Amino acid sequence: MLPMLPMPGDLRHILEELTGRPVSLTLARPLAPTQARLTTGVYTDSRLATAAVVLMDRPAAARLAACAGSFPAGVAADAIAAQHVPPLLLPPLNKVFEGLTALFPRQRLTLYALQPGGDAPTDVLAMAAAAGRRLDVTIAVRTYGVGRVSVVLAR
After folding, report:
1. Does residue 132 register a pLDDT over 70?
2. Model-level pTM?
3. DSSP letters of 55-107?
């Protein structure tokens, strides 16, 4: 069974649960995998087939991780300025991506791989560049700031 595209409200609700803060979101243009250093989460089904990819730009990854880890907003700002997600934020970033499996309750997808701000495999980049079954949003976490998130489903 192919995963169903999550509704924007579902994504907002899950992010609020993970961060403990109000999150607003608006539809946005797609995040392209050619853009600088996206954080990529690969979700697989029970056969280990790639079923979905979640992409975050550096601001979204840093802000959500800092918030989920109960770090001050300044930690996220420092990570954005340094242009990488520091080791301090990796456990809460993983928690965020693990929590996003709730976007796919019927399919029981699992987080197979998390690439924080690095180069994803070619097949994942191709899937992330595809038009069609995707949700692209700009998120805003109160007091932490904004970032962009894309949820892309396999065809």
Report:
1. yes
2. 0.92
3. EE-HHHHHHHHHHHTT--HHHHHHHHHHTS--GGGHHHHHHHHHHGGGG-TTT
